[in-house]
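Record type: monomer structure entry
Structure origin: computed from sequence
Chain ID: A
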Amino acid sequence: MRFLQSGRVNFWEATVIYKNYNSTSRGTMLVSKHCDFKKSLYYPGTAVVKTKLGYMKNSSFSLKHLILNEDGKICAEGEDVVVCYDFGENKTFRIPNELRDILEKF
């Protein structure tokens, strides 16, 4: 699950989500997480997390994750569902068009 979190945080940093949250208190909230384990990972070892946009709705979207071992074989597949959330007003908000344009590139 920490690998999925790393993929999600890296995604926030690659988009404007993290930057916008720091200046507006509007960001994303994790509402669901799922992971299917396919193959063992061993410690110590190396894992690569690949994250991309899964789907986008009005105020929510998903991130699809692949966790690969050092041989490039899939060890787990995961998905996060997040909702755009205004932490100051305690309510969801529609994904802004500018953010939609950025997310569609991933």
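Annotation 1: The chain has a mean pLDDT of 92.
Annotation 2: The domain at 2-103 is CATH 3.10.129.10 (Thiol Ester Dehydrase; Chain A).
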